[in-house]
């Protein structure tokens, strides 16, 4: 796979989630990810994009910028918004993936981040002029796909 990113800017509305999942599916199949890995990525990406749709812009219109980029055998999926978002009281715990506390003690709003951590190999959340979520999935088998 080449390392040139594929970048989309799309209105932050629920109707566009299927477009994002379709692009992810096409790229992941071509790269050689298994069906289970692709489904995991689709759930994680849908959750990250749903967070943008629900929380980033309030009642205003906004956009999701999503990029797919290869770095060695890792697929980096970056979901970015420019919205104000919502700041949770336990935000630092949520960003760590809730690994330090039992799941039953997690706040409802933090479960999406927990799922992303469970389904992806690595998750990074950055908050500066909006929110950026980077989801990283390592390709399990390395074969040349024709």
From TrEMBL:
Keywords: ATP-binding, Kinase, Nucleotide-binding, Serine/threonine-protein kinase, Transferase
Gene Ontology molecular function: ATP binding
Family matches, as PANTHER family: ANTI-SIGMA-F FACTOR RSBW, ANTI-SIGMA-F FACTOR RSBW-RELATED
Name of this chain's protein: ATP-binding protein
Signal peptide: none
InterPro entries, A to Z: Anti-sigma-factor_SerPK, HATPase_C_sf, HATPase_dom
SUPFAM superfamilies: ATPase domain of HSP90 chaperone/DNA topoisomerase II/histidine kinase
KW Iron (keyword) present: no
Keyword presence, Transferase: yes
Histidine kinase/HSP90-like ATPase domain segment(s): 11-137
Species for this entry: Paenibacillus chungangensis
């Amino acid at each position: 796979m080449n390392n040139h990113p594929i970048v989309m800017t799309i209105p932050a509305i629920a109707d566009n989630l299927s477009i994002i999942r379709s692009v992810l599916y096409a790229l992941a199949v071509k790269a050689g990810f298994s069906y289970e890995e692709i489904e995991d990525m689709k759930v994680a990406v849908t959750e990250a994009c749903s967070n943008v749709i629900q929380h980033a812009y309030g009642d205003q219109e906004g956009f999701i910028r999503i990029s797919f980029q290869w770095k060695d055998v890792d697929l980096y999926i970056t979901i970015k918004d420019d919205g104000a978002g919502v700041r949770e009281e336990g935000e630092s715990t949520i960003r760590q993936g809730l690994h330090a506390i039992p799941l039953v003690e997690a706040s409802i709003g933090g479960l999406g981040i927990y799922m992303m951590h469970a389904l992806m190999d690595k998750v990074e959340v950055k908050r500066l002029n909006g929110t950026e979520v980077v989801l990283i999935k390592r390709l399990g088998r390395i074969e040349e796909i024709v």
